[in-house]
Amino acid sequence: LGHRPKQNNTLYHERKESMLSRIRYALSKYWQNRAQLQRYCFSPELQLTSVLDLSVADLTALGIKALVLDFDGVLASHAEPEPRAEVAYWLNKLQRDFAPHQIYILSNKPTRERQNYFAKNFPGIIFIIAARKKPYPDGLQQIVTLSGLAAGQVLLIDDRLATGILAVIISGVRGLWLTKPYTNFFVRPMVETWFMCLRGLERFGCKII
Q1: How far apart are CA 182 and CA 192, in angstroms?
Q2: Could you give the CA distance from residue 15 to residue 30 in angstroms, rounded to a whole number?
Q3: Which of 47, 69, 148, 151 is the most buried (most CB within 10 A)?
Q4: Residue 131 in contact with residue 140, Cβ under 8 Å?
Q5: What gap in Å lies between CA 195 and CA 144, rounded to an integer?
Q6: What pLDDT, in 10s, does the model give residues 191-204?
């Protein structure tokens, strides 16, 4: 009988430690910035139902010159390789009418399949691979540097308070909290239920602290 190859325990523990570090960081920053997070829960002007409701005229009125989009929940339901059809249509119009090369995708799951999709279908949209995932501000800081803009001219749309919106607060860019994320419970019931619970806990935490 052949020998089973040994598991790479070092890599496993590094990944586990990295995830634990991110959770500790998120909890600490969530508490420190709870007052600002509450504003997103109670201020309609900081909320968005769907990206489809946002136009170039809206961005111009807000003084936004660079738009950053989360993927899961914002452009499609979780784990989908590409945006929904109606979102792809919106992205195409946005890519045509908004500032060239000032639209970015910043996802905590930057899969190769997603990167290839945007490289092929939306070459004017820049897919960002951050050194550390949200709520670390690395990705947003990278975008501020790449765009050459002030932080206040950069806007992130995200459906998670404790990741994307918290990164917004930490980095100093502007944000809109997407309150009706795309879901597909029929295809991925466990994953969607998990994230629904996380979003519920984040909202609950903001309202009681």
Answers
A1: 10
A2: 22
A3: 69
A4: no
A5: 28
A6: 999 999 999 999 99
